[in-house]
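Re: that backbone. Tokens:
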């Protein structure tokens, strides 16, 4: 059995104050911490742990109880001398001293008191200023204690090197070009919420594996990027906390409100801010921000997301909430169980098509209305030679994986309009397609391909033609936006497990015009594409053709 005064003190605080522990920390203690303390196959290096506490508090500042508690698990190993936890995921509200928590620890790990040679540590952030701000905590300590520090360390504003272990700490941006390929003992990812893909993260993690005791420290608040690395790791941690296998060796210390309503009870702020009772300035600052939020509702998303770790947006500018978007894919959001889909073969359907340029994105899909549920299945073509493609924050590298099977990467030039028409025609044989709908610009570009396939065009002479041109596409949002919003809220939209559809809807804003009508706009025109959603909107303009008709027979 492992005995550690600092762990026992924190557990004693937990038993007396469970009301200010959020469910994630409760699960951490009950499902991970307590069982570990009873195991006989875990080695706790208490000598090095107490050296760490002494070093950190001598050269930096007194540590808070929860910080000592987490530090203790850094020095636990299995019987083969591998760290019991490889990844420490720490999420807490802004202002809780994330730099103050991580910097003393990584400084110690490069010191002669830890004693591992070449235990290099990269502090990685999305911006140079963020990485440097964290690193400067260590740099300033060196500068303040020059007389002693210069005996053991060389340092400048970019890195510090221990003269005995040859271990270095360096600030680094997440741009892989800044990486020089040195072997790492540990990686620190600061403000993980800002990462939109795993590309840069993977590059730095590849440094691990050649130095003893490899570790990853992720320390962050929550943020606004959805379906990025933060959401992925939170999903993994949720499973671990609920008792799933922890083969990846995660230690998830997650601090957040359990319910948005708790924001109105200052006592509950401890759930998201474990430092608040030790930092009067933080408590007062959060109170000031809270009072300001009451006066200015537009500040609520920032306060809830950054201070309370409950991601929120100014929903009036979005089509629907992120939770509703997930419900469009999953009947069980927590466990990622996909929504049921009825048999679509031979069903009545409407096809919608949208694209900006063939050198960008193009989308086409089929809409069904079955038992009041709008079911949409689509395909998107992505031109990878577009000048902005590399900057688009969507994980295209996941293509072919579950949830990433309904888009195509076009690598050899512009998207071929005929290929879009070919796909539509191939799919049409499966369904009873009433209309193919696209706006005037797209109609002119694709009309000839449809005619070559023998698909009829709707006009005044042939109102029953299949291909319909929308003359006033901007009016669609004004007419159908209320229905789309209502159907999202009521769970009546079924996208299947389509990451690119969720992304596209999340990239679309609704704007209220002076005449009271709504229009759809891209949140950011170059990088946040919404063609898959706009194809859905085109299709929904023909929903009257999908409505189930009731026929009464009189005898």
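Recovered sequence:
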């Amino acid at each position: 059995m492992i005995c550690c005064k600092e762990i026992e003190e924190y557990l004693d605080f937990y038993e007396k104050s469970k009301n200010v522990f959020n469910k994630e920390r409760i699960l951490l203690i009950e499902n991970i911490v307590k069982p570990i303390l009873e195991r006989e196959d875990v080695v706790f290096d208490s000598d090095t742990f107490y050296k760490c506490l002494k070093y950190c508090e001598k050269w930096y500042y007194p540590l808070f109880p929860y910080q000592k508690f987490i530090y203790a698990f850094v020095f636990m190993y299995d019987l083969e001398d591998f760290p019991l936890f490889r990844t420490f995921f720490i999420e807490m509200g802004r202002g809780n001293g994330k730099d103050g928590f991580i910097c003393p620890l990584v400084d110690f790990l490069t010191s002669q008191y830890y004693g591992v040679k070449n235990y290099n540590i990269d502090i990685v952030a999305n911006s140079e200023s963020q990485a440097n701000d964290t690193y400067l905590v260590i740099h300033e300590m060196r500068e303040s204690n020059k007389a002693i520090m210069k005996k053991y360390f060389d340092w400048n504003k970019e890195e510090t090197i221990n003269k005995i272990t040859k271990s270095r700490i360096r600030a680094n941006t997440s741009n892989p070009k800044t990486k020089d390929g040195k072997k790492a003992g540990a990686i620190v990812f600061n403000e993980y919420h800002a990462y939109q893909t795993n590309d840069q993260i993977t590059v730095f993690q590849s440094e691990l594996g050649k130095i003893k005791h490899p570790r990853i420290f992720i320390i962050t608040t929550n943020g606004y990027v959805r379906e990025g690395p933060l959401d992925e790791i939170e999903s993994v941690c949720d499973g671990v906390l609920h008792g799933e296998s922890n083969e990846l060796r995660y230690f998830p210390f997650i601090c957040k409100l359990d319910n948005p309503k708790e924001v109105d009870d200052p006592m509950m702020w401890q759930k998201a801010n474990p430092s608040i009772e030790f930092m009067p300035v933080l408590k007062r600052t959060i109170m000031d921000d809270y009072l300001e939020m009451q006066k200015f509702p537009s500040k609520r998303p920032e306060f809830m997301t950054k201070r309370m770790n409950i991601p929120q947006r100014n929903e009036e500018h979005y089509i629907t909430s992120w939770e509703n978007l997930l419900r469009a894919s999953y009947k069980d959001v927590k466990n990622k169980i996909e929504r049921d889909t009825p048999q679509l073969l031979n069903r009545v359907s409407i096809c919608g098509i949208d694209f900006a340029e063939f050198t960008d994105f193009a989308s086409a899909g089929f809409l069904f209305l079955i038992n009041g549920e709008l079911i949409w299945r689509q395909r998107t073509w992505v031109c990878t030679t577009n000048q902005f493609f590399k900057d688009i924050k969507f994980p295209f590298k996941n293509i072919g994986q579950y949830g990433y099977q309904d888009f195509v990467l076009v690598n050899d030039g512009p998207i071929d309009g005929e290929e879009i028409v070919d796909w539509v025609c191939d799919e049409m044989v499966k369904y009873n397609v009433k209309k193919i709908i696209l706006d005037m610009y797209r109609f002119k570009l694709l009309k000839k391909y449809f005619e070559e396939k023998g698909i009829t065009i709707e006009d005044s002479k042939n109102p029953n033609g299949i291909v319909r041109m929308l003359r006033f596409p901007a009016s669609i949002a004004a007419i159908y936006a209320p229905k789309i919003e209502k159907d999202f809220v009521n769970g009546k939209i079924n996208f299947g497990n389509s990451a690119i559809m969720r992304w596209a809807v999340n990239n679309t804003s609704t704007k209220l015009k002076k005449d009271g009508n709504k229009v759809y706009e891209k949140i950011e025109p170059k990088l946040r594409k919404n063609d898959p959603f706009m194809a859905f909107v085109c299709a929904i303009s023909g929903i009257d053709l999908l409505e189930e008709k009731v026929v009464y027979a009189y005898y």
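The first strand starts at residue 43 and ends at 44. The mean pLDDT is 90.
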